[in-house]
Request: fold
Amino acid sequence: MPEGPEIRRAADTLETAIQGKPLTDVWFALPQLTGFAAGLVGQHVERIETRGKALLTHFSGGLTLYSHNQLYGVWRVVAAGESPQTNRVLRVRLQAADKAILLYSASDIAILTPEQLAQHPFLQRVGPDVLDMALTVEQVKARLLSPRFRRRQFSGLLLDQAFLAGLGNYLRVEILWQSGLAGQRNASQLTDTQLDVLANALLAIPRLSYQTRGVVDDNKHHGALFRFKVFHRAGDMCERCGGVIEKTTLSSRPFYWCPGCQR
Ligand SMILES: [Zn+2]
Reply:
């Protein structure tokens, strides 16, 4: 499953192809959306926002295309007019003079006004996105200490998109290793210094992974600068304490950690 950094990079690719260019052709498969297509021609995409696994394509006229890819949806960038050979079902086509972006297979798609966007059930449930550069360490710390989250075990909390969007399993284990914390702990047990370290890691590690373009391939989970310290490294030596990295299961997902220095 892609995590926030991979989803943000996919959104960057779409933005590069289409952002700021007048749309020359807009097409929607879903009958409830076809009525919007003509009105969007001539507008442009201002930006593509990510909220966890949801993509928000903001048009210059004020409407937003909401799409959530679940397991199957996939976006493609193609040359204008090109229709790739694929067995996937096309759902959305947004085309400018030179490029088009195509959404295949996703079924959770809507066009929303700003008011509808603010009330959208998924977006109301999901927390702030770790790759939203406006989100600060202080805000994350306050969220950790809020009554809703302060007693939640980190192993589950860090996978809960209602806490922070964009974290997944590899980020969960790397953030906890970096913070020197065991998965069973919770925020209410931490010192102020530990909270600062954790809040910082919750933003710094996803952002480093994003910026250094960590490889998504399951067999090569590290990029040039972002190297996994524990993920997929059971049996290796911990570079901080020399202990042996272990693999277990926590909150129903594989969990990697160093019992020597994560307390
Ligand atoms: Zn260690």
User: Anything to note?
Assistant: The chain has a mean pLDDT of 92.
